[in-house]
Each structure stands twice: as structure tokens, then as C-alpha cells.
Amino acid sequence: MNNLRALGTRPWIWGFAAAALVWLAILAISGQGGGQTVSLALSLAPYLVIVGLGQMLVITAGPGNIDVSVAPIISLAGFVSVATAAATGSATAGIVAGIGVGLAVAVVSTVAILGLSVPPIIATLAAGLVASSVTLSLADGFAAVPDPGLRHLLNLRPAGVPLLAVAVAAVTALVVALLRRTVYGRSLIAVGQNRRAAERAGVPVARIIATTYLASGALAGLTGSLLAAYIAPSADLGTRYLLDSVAVVVIGGTLISGGRAVPVGVWGAALFFILLDGLVNLVGWSTAAQNLLKGGLVLLVLFLAGGGDRATGTPSLFRRRPRPAAATLTTTGENTHG
């Protein structure tokens, strides 16, 4: 029981455990290609991790904060990035343009949220609809092709490990350091735990919220730029990433109510989702059956990872007693796991 309780204090473990179980199921059914399956998952997961990290920051800001504009941003950034790279001959310029698209859409959302007091879900939805309209306009007769050099780079797998996975793992480590060691990170955790108390403590809440939504938009734009080069730009390029970006955040151990961020958990949950897609495709299940399996497994992982203590993430199954109410605001980074 003590070992189980110890696992509960590390909420990021559950996503990796679920991913491992799905991988074993794939291995048992196919009987081959275990290493290839992992390599493929590591090739696809980074795109979900990048947008998931941005969504994680937004959700950590507290109740009601969510960014539903990430999917339209990914699609629009894909077109803008590929077009810019083709026009300038520079993949770097294309990536910067894609990030700029994400920032532009995020500015609209932020102004609506902070300046007009529009609920985040409505503000980001409206901004996303504008982005979707622009995307449809660009998609009509779009002829540019992804930069071959960037596509080659995204497909590099030294020693079987995708280079992009290594780069995104480094970005994840930077996010961990950001949350644990910077004023912004500690302030974000404080705002997520208790916004009113954070305001009274002198935390610049509006600035923290604005920075968080801008970061989410930029990361979504980066995702679209890279994904369009890896696959191809399309109007529905980001469609699956809306719900998946929220799911990997919560399954990874970040509290949906805010105040606790688990960047490493986003990786485990992303691998879980990618491998789960591979499993249901392998067995040839119908879409309805696939959704049923996904829903059941997601609920199970949510129960194990999020059904417990707010501060430590210990599942309710393993808790001894309720945690007494905190007398002061936590700003030391103890609610950042991994």
C-alpha cells in the first residue's frame, strides 16, 4: 500500500503506465515490431506534446481557463508556414510565421478575456472561428508544398530515436524549469490555486493570464508549422488536437481545476493516445468501438491519476485522510511535478 501511495504522489506515472500496457497489447496481437512501434509513437507524440504543454499552462491558470482555439491555429499556421517557406525559401521563416499566426490569434483571445471579460471558452472559440475562416480561404487553390529540408529533419531518427522527440523532451525540461524556478511559474501556480489570494499578494494576475494564453497560441502555431511540414497542410490538420490536447493534460496529472502542472505527464499521456490509436487500428474496430475503448481507458486513467489529493495527486483509493486547508498561498513550485 505504501508503494501504491508513493506512486500516487507522482501523477505523471499513470500516463506512462497506460502507454506501456497498450504497447504490450500491440506486441501481443502483432507478435512483432515492438521497437518499431515505440519509434513510430515517438515520431508522432511530440506534436501532441507541444500543443499539450501550451494547453497545460492555460489549464493550470485556474477554473474556467481553456484554449479551444488551438485546433484552428494549428490548421492556419500550417498553411501560413508552408506558404511563407515556399515564398522565401527559408523553413525558419515559415516556422516563425506559423508561430506569429498563433500569437495573433492568442492576442484576440486575450483582449476578449481580459479587456471585455468574455469567458475564456467563448473568447478562444470566437478567435478560433475567425482563424478557421481564414484557413478555408487559404486552402482554396493552395499549391505550395512543404520544405523538403524541414521534412527530412523531422524524419531523422538517429539510433532509432526521432530527433524531434529529443528536441521536444528538451523543451519539456525547460517548461519544468520555468514553472519551478521562475517568478512567472510560481505566479501561475498561485493564480491557479486561488486567484483572489494571488491578487492580494501582489501577483500581476492579468499579465500572467495574458502571457499564458500567448504561450499557448505560440506553441499551437509551432505545432502547425512542424506538422504541416511532416504531413501536409490541410483545413482539418488540427481537428483532433483540440480534445486530445485537453485529454493529455488531465491524464498526465495536471489538475483540471488549476494550481498544479505536470509537464512530464503530458509526454506519458501523449504516448498513450498515439499507441491507443495504433491498437484500435490494428484490431480493425469500428469507429464506435474505438471511441468506446478510448473513453473507457481515459476514464480509468483519469480515476487513477486525478481522483485524489489536490496538492499531491494521490488517488483517493490510497489517501489516509483529507488534507487540512492551506493557510497561505503556495508559490514554491511544490505543485509542479516533473
Automatic annotation (TrEMBL):
InterPro entries: ABC_transp_permease. The chain crosses the membrane at residues 12-31, 37-59, 66-87, 93-114, 121-139, 159-179, 205-232, 238-257, 264-286, 292-311. It is found in: Cell membrane. Keywords: Cell membrane, Membrane, Transmembrane, Transmembrane helix. It is a multi-pass membrane protein. The keyword Transmembrane applies. Coiled coil: none annotated. It comes from the Bacteria. PANTHER family: ABC TRANSPORTER PERMEASE PROTEIN YPHD-RELATED-RELATED, RIBOSE IMPORT PERMEASE PROTEIN RBSC. This is ABC transporter permease. It comes from Streptosporangium fragile.
